[in-house]
Every structure is written in C-alpha cells, then in structure tokens.
Specification:
mainly alpha, 11 helices, 68% helix, globular
Length: 227
C-alpha cells in the first residue's frame, strides 16, 4: 500500500518499538485534542457550544490542568457551569417527564468533549490500521512492537472480524496474542523478581534488582492502558 495522508499517521505510530502502539495512537489523539481546545479554538463559538454541552472527564481535566493556559480552562468552566446550571435547574417545562433531570444529570456526568473527539479519531485510524494489514512493512513493524496492552488486545481482536477476512483475522489475532502473552510472561518474571528482593537474603548495597524496579508501574500500564 502506498503511503498517503491516511497511512502516514499509522506508520509513524508503529515506528517506536516501546510500549503499546494503540496506546500511542490514543495518546497522540488526546494530546492534539487537549492542545487544540486549550489554544485559539477555545474562542470559536461552535467549539464552545460543544464544550459547554459535553464538559470534560476527570482524566482530561487533569491533562488540561497541565497546560500553561489556565485562563482558557477557567473560561470554558465558566460557561460550562452556567449551561449545566440552566439544564438542571431551569424551571420545569409543562410536559417534561418526571425523570428528565435525572436523565440530563447522567448525560452531563458521562460526557466529555475530549473523549468524543478521541473516539471519533480512533474509529477512523482503526479503519486505516486494518486496511494496512497484510502489507509486509506493516506486519514487520507489528511483530517488532514491545507488546499490546490488555485493553487494546481486547479492542483489536474484537474489531478484526469486521475489517478482515476470517483467515486474515485469525492471523492478526494470533500475532496480537503472541505480543500480549510474551509481555505478560516478562511482567510476571519482573514483578516476581521485585517481590523476591524484599527477602532479607537479597538485601544489601549490591542487590541486583535487574529490570524489576519499575515492574509495578509497567504492570499497571499493561493491565489498564494507563500509566
């Protein structure tokens, strides 16, 4: 498959050989969306309408707080809080059902502008990702990946039948399984090593922790896709 504006992002995502490539895909979309919303887009009326409606989840609020422009976040919070107040506590309409406020509250609590944009982007990138499967370069890059995290192993093997032939899906799922199982075994060894280092026989200034010191963090990231 010739490189195009659609395939280049996937190729760039597969270039590093550390961590889970689908995590990198999601992280890239999150980073770009947060930078976008914290920049000039914050003043665009159509964007503000969407952020006022959807708000942001806790995780993406945290990412936004790490950006330098706190005023942008404050302005978005100002209008989001105002709209939330109006949606929940405005005078009840004559024919509004009894559970209308509860429904609105659930919608507000479950929505996030960044999540919506990332989901939209992931859906389109996944389509290209699977279209590239079978290309020699793509398959080679996939085999060289460090691992596929557990949540994205589930995602990829769930989506593959919708994009690939039964034979292709079988081969693709096997490849993902190899990457995932290999890393589970590596993690188990590293976490076991970490635990063993608390045995008094392994203490001392010359104690060899090997690669186990960050095994807890790596295991959590593998199991949850979040570090």
């Amino acid at each position: 498959m010739r490189e195009s504006i659609l395939t280049i992002p996937i190729s760039e995502i597969l270039e590093p050989k550390e961590g889970c490539p689908i995590c990198r895909m999601r992280d890239m979309l999150e980073r770009r969306t947060v930078e976008y919303i914290m920049g000039a887009a914050m003043m665009e009326p159509d964007v503000r309408i969407e952020t006022n409606r959807a708000g942001f989840c806790s995780m993406h609020f945290s990412q936004m707080l790490k950006q330098k422009n706190r005023l942008s976040l404050a302005l978005m919070l100002q209008t989001h809080l105002d709209e939330t107040h109006n949606r929940l506590f405005s005078r009840k309409k004559l024919f509004e059902p009894k559970n209308a406020r509860k429904k609105k509250l659930s919608e507000i609590n479950e929505s996030c502008f960044v999540c919506e944009k990332v989901d939209w982007g992931m859906e389109r990138l996944m389509r290209t990702f699977f279209e590239m499967y079978g290309n020699d370069d793509f398959t080679s890059q996939m085999r060289e990946q460090e691992y596929i995290c557990l949540p994205h192993f589930d995602l990829l093997t769930s989506l593959s039948p919708a994009y690939l032939s039964p034979k292709e899906a079988e081969g693709f799922n096997a490849l993902c399984g190899e990457l995932t199982e290999r890393y589970i075994l590596t993690l188990y060894e590293d976490v076991s090593k970490y635990c063993s280092m608390y045995d008094y026989r392994n203490t001392g200034k010359d104690a060899d922790w090997a690669g186990s010191k960050d095994s807890i963090e790596r295991a959590i990231k593998f199991l949850t896709s979040r570090g």
